[in-house]
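Attaching the record inline, Q. Sequence:
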Amino acid sequence: MSGDKKPASSKPPSSASEGSQNSQKPSSLKPEKSKLQTFGPPLNLTVPKNKAVGCEHLFAFYKKPGWGVEDTKDRYNKKLDQLIDYRKECKACSTCHDVPASLYLCLECSELNCWDCADQHAKGEEHEFSLNYRNGFLWCHSCRDFIYDSDLERVRCAHEKVIAATSFRKRKRPTADEARYIENNSNPQPCKSTGLRGMVNFGNTCWISVSLLSLLQNPLVRNYFMSRPHEYQTCQIEYCLVCELGKIFDAFYTEDNLSPFAAMEFIIAASKRLPSFRASEQQDPSEFLDSLFSKLCEDFNQKDASGECKCILHQVFYWKQNDHRHCRSCKAKGIKDHLVGPLLPLHQLPDGWRDLPVGKRRKTETKADNPPPSIKMYFDDHYKKHDTSSRYTCEGCHTSGNVTQFYSFKGFPMVVTCYFPWMKMADDASTEHVDFPLSIDLKELAAPVRSGKLKLDDAPGVWYDLFFTTVHHGSDKGGHYVCYTRDREGTWFYINDSNVHVADVEHVLGSTPIMLSYILRKLPEADV
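Structure, as predicted:
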């Protein structure tokens, strides 16, 4: 029904491995060129019309002006008139003039190119579809795969040139019962893999697995790496971590494979570049991510003239934070901003916090005598106003220790990953559960709100949605890391090494995570 399975390189298969159709005799009548009566005898096969057809890019293509389903079928049929029999003739690429094993004809224009030139043409002109010049199979440059559409497949199978080109091959067609089974058991499929795979634990590497999964399940980082930003084949960096991470993204999102992934090459490269993190010992994933980001930024090598890194990690995980210092003596107000990230540490609340005003408010909210703390309490504690030590001197009046200091978000990051460093220091029995929501609004931490320039009720919402959590079982002397992740449809999954299971939201919210990753829902409606 469609082309052979895509190879690992995401290039179309060569002519030796392309699919074919059964031989059929063309009609004895001379067909008209402008009508669909040019098709050969009708196929004795019921092809499902609304099952497992096309891809999301083809559906969008049908909505373009002048490219409806019928118009596309008509133009596709005319493109099939240009197919050639490779046994009798060959043609060269119109761009590089090479004579490859396979050529690709653009569906929207007259370009005839080899694979590399066709891909460059598709990116430059935004022409997403090409036909294999031998058998007419339709290639989607966005999916990087041959696609099957029932309407276009009827056109292709009935075209006399396709019949002639495939007459020397034999391929069994589905019987009526098989066609009915296909129709009843097929569903529209996305053009990309889900990326839901477990990872092999090499004895004590669960902390590496959850660290990698937190990046693999991040849609912003995923989309960046799937655009192939790094030349993996020509990179000269020894043990390049960007190369190894890009290979893992390819394995998760381009291979039709659900078996656990073995990240041995990444572990070897990480052990060479980060010798303090040994795979034979349990490590803290937050500390590992912080060091890993530093090396990844080094391998990206995307600093501007001012020395500021512009790599994808800095764009997603780092943000500008304002340091406010108000002198109570001379009333002077100073603000300094600095770059922070990629993780936000939330330290333990003071002992006896339930007897403090914040604890009393928490009791009122939950209507419980011994309520668990909420993540909002940790944010408030981290960004609360406090008196500085005597080592800070006001630049205006030169007095020391009479300054109020607090922090605020000057700019909000795309992803906020907060972690509780004190949790892994305790046993499970004494680890206190922290209530955390699926969505959180951080507008009250914006600089205009914290400095009093904007009322909280007037500030636009800055909503973040939870998409990944890391849970630690055990103590700092030993234990195990697992994680929960949310897919594109909003379904939660529990990943424990090589095992992946669907998880209830109640299980996610009932866990005691050591790290929480929230992604920005949308950009603020106004400056905050």
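The first strand starts at residue 104 and ends at 106. Residues 115 and 293 are 35 Å apart (CA to CA).

More tomorrow.
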